[in-house]
Structures are given as structure tokens and as C-alpha cells.
Design a protein that fits this description.
The complex is a heterodimer of chains A (165) and B (453).
Chain A: H1 6-16, H2 28-39, H3 44-54, H4 58-67, E1 79-84, H5 87-90, H6 94-105, E2 118-123, E3 135-137, E4 140-142, H7 147-164
Helix pairs in contact in A: 2-3, 3-4
Chain B: H1 18-23, H2 28-33, H3 38-48, H4 60-65, E1 76-81, H5 90-97, H6 99-113, E2 117-122, H7 129-142, E3 147-150, E4 155-163, H8 173-180, E5 204-208, H9 209-221, H10 223-227, E6 230-231, E7 234-235, E8 237-244, E9 250-255, H11 260-265, E10 279-283, E11 292-293, H12 294-298, H13 310-313, H14 317-320, E12 328-333, H15 338-352, H16 358-375, H17 381-394, H18 402-426, H19 428-431
Parallel strand pairs in B: 1-2, 1-5, 2-4, 8-12
Antiparallel strand pairs in B: 3-4, 6-7, 8-9, 10-11, 10-12
Helix pairs in contact in B: 3-6, 5-6, 6-9, 15-16, 15-18, 16-17, 16-18, 17-18
Classes of the chains: A alpha+beta (165), B alpha/beta (453).
The complex binds flavin mononucleotide, iron/sulfur cluster and FE2/S2 (inorganic) cluster.
């Protein structure tokens, strides 16, 4: 069963209160972010649940969830590497970084490692062009990437995952 | 040192927090503005000559004066923090390091526009910044600058932060409003303009982060004084985010009187081209504005120094000029391939097209495919003309300016770097092993000669 905790439901209500009366649909993007944080990705069941919470049709949720790139409509790895590949990052070697991560994890962009730890994605400009090459990892950015830095990040994720097991 | 109005205090310890910010003169503009009538605040902004820093450069005071004021209908100010134009990362810097400057500007601007509920729409990927902004909002509230009856003037104001979820198009103001309403980011057909019918059909003004931050020095020093900085219709200061093959990428505040050459080569700014290479090309205002070869970038077709301001950058129109845009300054050195760079931009616009208009939806994908083919050495001469034809049919034929923004970079690349495109076809195998290089792109131009289109 997909279900927010009471604390999460309170948060949903605080978000709804930001918008005019009767315009609770406006809370959809933030509530989808919350749902994804809690459940990892947006299944149909999760989206239907969000529709019920906001008192809107499920199709209104699907429409939005499929439009924005940050919503995962499929399960993803525990750590998602989203490497920017747009012009300014490209001229600083983002192609090499993407290839290197792919080689190291033995996956192609769009894929997840067999152990479910890592997903590699390419991304378009993330607003860090001066600190290229870079990637987004969860809530934060990893900038000025080098092969050594990538190695260190992967090693750290692996050891973190071990601790959490 | 140039004049700094926005970033002057950026390096003061603790400036992210209320106490240090206030101690260094923060929130004076709120105290001053709330003693004035809202229309007087609008008047100061008009006098300042401030132009929107989001890309279009529309005069802010004029935009504010268009807001409809029907009786009994709430109005809203929405801060555009969607910042997704390749090359642009200045708003991020402002929000991360000087969140109170934005909040201060938002309070004054909300007062001027009569917005009791103001929203900041921030791109979803800047996921750590809402916490910074929300903390600043809470501090401002705790100190009486937000909430009910601010400074006992009877003015109420709340500011809420909403995250987007990954869509460049949501930076376009009507798409942003749709997204704020919990919908797909499909731009609306204008008119009606947001100033009449915006968020929830209420009169709405959408302004860029930097624009709203600039309201603070304008109120503090007065519109007339602000207008004395800069030159012509480029008043005040502008944030430039510089990236690419330069020694010192970063966010800089300039007053709009320095030359492009100074900006690139001076140690105060970009610090010159990295690794002692030579300058080949530059996109000075974010990916949507025309790319220029080094020779046309540093000097106008008339042979004059090009200056970092609205007028000088656009001198020569699209034939030999470019635009200030959002201030995303992308520098390419002699080792960069313009064909490949243009391909990545075409891919970007295809990825970001919302798909409502066929010229944009189909055209961006087609341009991407052709550019990829050219870059991979499988292009034909006729592809160049085809690209030209496609871009010319997108421009001006779409609901929102994303279509134009996708067309212009391709048009400018072909206009100025046609030799390089042709070389990718005539020397296809060689083009896979080396780049065209600097070629003649930095050669001094004959002056004065009519522009070649
Ligand atoms: C495709 C597209 C993307 C845009 N992205 C942004 C953006 O990220 N930030 C921004 O401030 N303006 C952006 N704009 C411009 C806005 O539509 C609008 O003009 C601007 O927010 C107005 O603010 P200003 O007058 O303060 O510049 C974009 C426009 C288009 C067509
Ligand atoms: S021009 Fe492109 S992005 Fe803009 S409305 Fe049309 S399809 Fe959408
Ligand atoms: S191009 Fe990669 S962050 Fe902007």
C-alpha cells in the first residue's frame, strides 16, 4: 500500500495552503517530488494516490509526471548519476566522463547496474557550466569532475551502501 | 575595480544569514519603500532604466505599470528562478550566496505591485537552494519584514518557493505559470498577457531573480542615480556567468562600459584563454543568442570596440552582431568544433521543446539529426542549405520564443562558420581526427565593409 506518514500528510497540507482556495492542483509538482523522495520512483499506484490526495483526476497527474524529466517513471538505482552533456560541459570533456562512468559501472546511459546501486543518465544543462564537467547526484551537484573524482565518488557510494545494509 | 551593486557583500562572512546581512545595510530598501506609495516605487524603477535580466531586456518599470488592477482580484509577483539556458548560472550564485538580497528585492517589488502572495519558481535541479531561501524567508519573517502588517505599515506579504521538475521551457513566463498551476509547461498563446491574466487568471508579473535583486540598490540609491551607471539604455550593473575555455570561469558583476576584450583577457574577469590558446568564438548571452567568431566579437563590423552592453553586443543585428541575452558567456578556443557545439545545442532544444507547435517540435529534431550527421562526417553539401531552410521556417512561426531560440544558434553558426561546416563534408575523414581549428576566424576584418550575410 502506498501511503504517506502523518508527518508527510501534514507537509502536503502545508504545501496546498500556499495556493489559492480550490487551486490545490497547484501543489502537484511539489507533492510528486515528495512522493518520489519517499517511494523512490513514481509508479501508477503512487500517481493515483497523489491524485486522490489533491482531489484531481489520475490523468492530470500522469500528464505532469511524463512531462518533467526529474520524475522517474521506472525504478532507478540507489545513486543516480546525471551527467550534463550540453555545449559548455561538452567542451570541458563531459563525453569522456560519461564514457568513463559507463565503463567503470559497465552500463550505458539510461541503464542501472545489476546490483541496483547505480543509474547513469545524461542530462542537459544543469546551470553549472562554469564548473564543468559536472553531474547531479541526488540533491547535490558534483562539479569539476575528473576520472579520479569519479572513482572516489563511486567508492564512497559503495561503502555508504554497505554501512546502510 | 568596477562598480558592484549586487555582489559587493557576497564574500562577507555569514552574509547568507539575516544578522550579517542586516548589519551590512540589508533591508533598508524595505524600510524606505514602505514609506512611499506603491506607484512611487514603480516610478523609481522606471527612472532607473532597469531592463529585465532574464534574457529579453524589457524595461522593468514599464512592465510593472502594465499590471491590471481590477477591484477585489489579488495580484501576484512570481520570481523566475528557472535558470536553464545553457551558459547561464548567475541566478544560482545570487540565491546561494545572497538569499536575503533576493528576498529583500521581492518584498519591495511585491509592495510596488500589490502582491500579498509572491512565489519563487526555481528549477527542480537546484534542489538544495529552496532550503537556503526558505531559511532566509523565515529569518525575514522573524524580524518583521515578512508576514502580516510588515513594519506596521499594514502591508502583508508571504513568499513561497516552488520547485520545478526539469523543463527548460518552464522559464518561459506563461509556461512557468502553467507549471505553477500544477500543469505541463506548455506556453500559452498571448494575449492575454500575464499582466492581465496570469496565474489562476489573476494579474501576474514574472521577473528574473537578478532583476528583482537589482530593485534593492535602485530604491536605496534612487532611480536617477542608478541610471547614471552604465551607458545609454544599458543602465546599472549586469551579472555575467562566464564559462568555456577561460582561465577564470565564474559569476562576475560588470558595469556595462567595459569592452568584451577586457572582459575576456583581464585578470579581473575571465583571465584570458586557458592554456595560452587563442580565442575562436563566443556565445556571449546564453545558448540562444548568435555565436560570433573572434573577429566580430571583439570589434563591430564598423571596426569599433565591442562593449559588454545591450546596444553594443547587438550592433550589426544578426548579420554581424549578437545579444546580451541572459549574460551566459560561453568562450570557445581554437581547438573547439563549432559544428559539434551547435549539435549539442540543437539536441538541447529538441529535448526541451514542449511539442505544441509543429515547426518547433519537428524542426528541432530535424536540425539535431542533420547536425549529428554533419559532425560524424556523413553530411552532404545540401544539408547546410537544408539546415538554413529549416531554421528560417521555425523562426517566427511558433507560440513561444523557444522556436526562435533554437533557430538562431544554428543560423548564426552557418552564417559565420560556413567554411567549417563545408570542411566537415569535403574532408569528412579528416574531420573525425582533428578539428578545423582557428582558421581565419580571428583575422582582422576589412573596415569598413558591408556585412556579408
Ligand atoms: C524558452 C525560454 C526560456 C526562458 N527561461 C528563462 C529563465 O530561465 N529565467 C528567466 O528569468 N527568464 C527566462 N525566460 C524569459 C521569461 O519568459 C521572461 O521574459 C522573464 O522571466 C521576464 O523577466 P525579466 O523581465 O525580469 O527579465 C525564458 C524565455 C523563453 C522563451
Ligand atoms: S515554440 Fe516550441 S517550446 Fe514554444 S510552445 Fe511551441 S513547441 Fe512549445
Ligand atoms: S552545460 Fe553543463 S551545466 Fe550548463
Amino acid at each position: 500500500m502506498i501511503q504517506f506518514s502523518q508527518e508527510q500528510l501534514d507537509k502536503v497540507n502545508r504545501i496546498i495552503a500556499r495556493y489559492p482556495q480550490g487551486k490545490q492542483k497547484s501543489a502537484l509538482l511539489p507533492v510528486l517530488h515528495l512522493a518520489q523522495d519517499v517511494f523512490g520512483w513514481l509508479s501508477t499506484e503512487t500517481m493515483d494516490y497523489v491524485a486522490t490526495l489533491l482531489n484531481i483526476e489520475p490523468i492530470e497527474v500522469y500528464e505532469v509526471a511524463t512531462f518533467y524529466t526529474m520524475y522517474n517513471l521506472k525504478p532507478v538505482g540507489k545513486y543516480v548519476f546525471e551527467v550534463c552533456q550540453t555545449g559548455p560541459c561538452m567542451i570541458q570533456g563531459s563525453d569522456d566522463i560519461i564514457a568513463y562512468i559507463g565503463e567503470k559501472l559497465d552500463i550505458k546511459p539510461g541503464e542501472t547496474t545489476a546490483d541496483g546501486l547505480f543509474t547513469l543518465k545524461t542530462a542537459e544543462c544543469l546551470g553549472a557550466c562554469g564548473y564543468a564537467p559536472m553531474m547531479q547526484m541526488g540533491k547535490f551537484y558534483k562539479e569539476h569532475l575528473t576520472k579520479e573524482k569519479v572513482d572516489a565518488i563511486i567508492a564512497e557510494c559503495r561503502s555508504q551502501a554497505l554501512v546502510n545494509q | 575595480m568596477g562598480i558592484k551593486l549586487l555582489l559587493e557583500n557576497a564574500h562577507i562572512e555569514g552574509i547568507r544569514y539575516f544578522d550579517a546581512y542586516r548589519k551590512n545595510g540589508g533591508y533598508r530598501s524595505v524600510e524606505k519603500a514602505l514609506k512611499m506609495a506603491p506607484d512611487e516605487v514603480v516610478e523609481e524603477v522606471k527612472k532607473s532604466g532597469l531592463r529585465g535580466r532574464g534574457g529579453a531586456g524589457f524595461p522593468t518599470g514599464m512592465k510593472w505599470s502594465f499590471i491590471a488592477k481590477p477591484e477585489g482580484v489579488p495580484r501576484h509577483l512570481v520570481c523566475n528562478a528557472d535558470e536553464s539556458e545553457p551558459g547561464t548560472f548567475k541566478d544560482r550564485y545570487l540565491m546561494e550566496f545572497l538569499p536575503h538580497l533576493l528576498i529583500e528585492g521581492l518584498i519591495v517589488s511585491s509592495y510596488a505591485l500589490g502582491s500579498n502572495v509572491t512565489y519563487i519558481y526555481i528549477r527542480g535541479e537546484y534542489a538544495w537552494i529552496p532550503d537556503i531561501l526558505e531559511q532566509a524567508i523565515e529569518e525575514a519573517r522573524a524580524n518583521g519584514f515578512l508576514g502580516k502588517n510588515i513594519l506596521n505599515t499594514g502591508f502583508d506579504c508571504e513568499i513561497y518557493v516552488q520547485r520545478g521538475a526539469g523543463a527548460y521551457i518552464c522559464g518561459e513566463e506563461t509556461a512557468l505559470i502553467e507549471s505553477l498551476e500544477g500543469k505541463r509547461g506548455n506556453p500559452r498563446i498571448k494575449p492575454p498577457f500575464p499582466a492581465v491574466k496570469g496565474a489562476w487568471d489573476r494579474p501576474t508579473v514574472v521577473n528574473n531573480v537578478e532583476t528583482l535583486a537589482a530593485v534593492v540598490p535602485i530604491i536605496n540609491m534612487g532611480g536617477e542615480e542608478y541610471a547614471k551607471i552604465g551607458v545609454g539604455r544599458s543602465t546599472g550593473t549586469k551579472l555575467i556567468s562566464a564559462c568555456g575555455n577561460i582561465n577564470k570561469p565564474g559569476v562576475y558583476e560588470i558595469d556595462m562600459t567595459i569592452s568584451v576584450e577586457e572582459f575576456i583577457y583581464s585578470d579581473e574577469w575571465c583571465g584570458g584563454i586557458k592554456n595560452g590558446k587563442r580565442l575562436k568564438a563566443c556565445i556571449p548571452g546564453g545558448s540562444s543568442v548568435p555565436i560570433l567568431p573572434a573577429n566580430l566579437l571583439l570589434k563591430t563590423a564598423k571596426g569599433e570596440q565591442r562593449i559588454m552592453n545591450y546596444e553594443s553586443l547587438s550592433d550589426g543585428g544578426f548579420a554581424t552582431g549578437t545579444m546580451m541575452g541572459s549574460g551566459g558567456f560561453i568562450v570557445l578556443d581554437e581547438d573547439q568544433c563549432v559544428v559539434k557545439h551547435t549539435y549539442t545545442l540543437a539536441r538541447f532544444y529538441r529535448h526541451e521543446s514542449c511539442g505544441q507547435c509543429s515547426p518547433c517540435r519537428e524542426g528541432t529534431g530535424w536540425m539535431e539529426k542533420l547536425l549529428l550527421r554533419l559532425d560524424q562526417g556523413q553530411g552532404k553539401m545540401s544539408d547546410i542549405d537544408l539546415l538554413w531552410d529549416i531554421q528560417s521556417k521555425i523562426e517566427g512561426n511558433t507560440i513561444c520564443p523557444l522556436g526562435d531560440a533554437a533557430a538562431w544558434p544554428v543560423a548564426a553558426a552557418i552564417r559565420h562558420f560556413r567554411d567549417e561546416f563545408e570542411w566537415h563534408i569535403t574532408n569528412a575523414a579528416e574531420a573525425q581526427t582533428r578539428n578545423f581549428g582557428l582558421a581565419h576566424y580571428a583575422d582582422p576584418l576589412p573596415v569598413p565593409e558591408p556585412a556579408v550575410v
